[in-house]
Amino acid sequence: MPLALVVFTVLALLLHDSVAVLPSLTLTGGTRMQLAMFVPVVVLVALGRCLDARLPAPEVSGVRHVLWLDAALTVVAVLAAAAVGVALGSVLDSEAALVLGRNTAFLTGILLCGRAVFGTVAVLLPVLWIVTVMLVGFRTWTDPYFWSVLPEPHGEPHAMVLAVTALLCGILVHQFSTRRAL
Predict the structure, then answer these.
(1) Which end of the chain has fewer CB within 10 Å, C or N?
(2) Cα separation of 67 and 73, whole Å?
């Protein structure tokens, strides 16, 4: 996980204000997207790998509450990503870096909810969300739909509420999922 946060930091530093024109189904000429929207995937893959590296029998019979440790790991990873984003956003005056924590929280919630249904392949769901936003998440080049969350600017209250809600739902689903041996 620490290596993933280092890679996250380097990618955030390199891509913080980079924009690419990517294909879109709703806009002619494509969608202008911040490449920093893809940066949280590094943390999500590492987090998914950590959560999938389980030993079901010892975890069930053990004294430690592994599910709560998993939740703590998740929260610490999201908070670390948010701290990196805020630090880089403040130093570099970058809007894209400031929203990295919110985007990581939202995509982590999607990952955790998906793990209960799809198991280890749920790590692809956040990538699918990013691609969905790219293809159909914008009304105009600069006006994303409210549900897309990721391209919303820093300070949008509905985006923060959706991100926190997704993260809390993901943690709750992870805690009470009946699918223990993924």
Answers:
(1) N
(2) 10
> 13-36: per-residue pLDDT in tens?
998 888 888 777 776 667 788 889
How do beta strands 138-140 and 31-34 pair?
Answer: unpaired
Look at the alpha carbons of 13, 103, 105, 125 in this order and tell me if their dihedral is positive or negative.
Answer: negative
- CA nearest 169: which of 101, 103, 127, 111? 111
The residue whose two tokens read 């939740």 is 71
Neighbours of 120 (CB within 10 A): 12
Q: What angle do CA 182, 104, 157 make, to 5 degrees?
A: 130
Q: Which amino acid does the sequence have at 79?
A: L
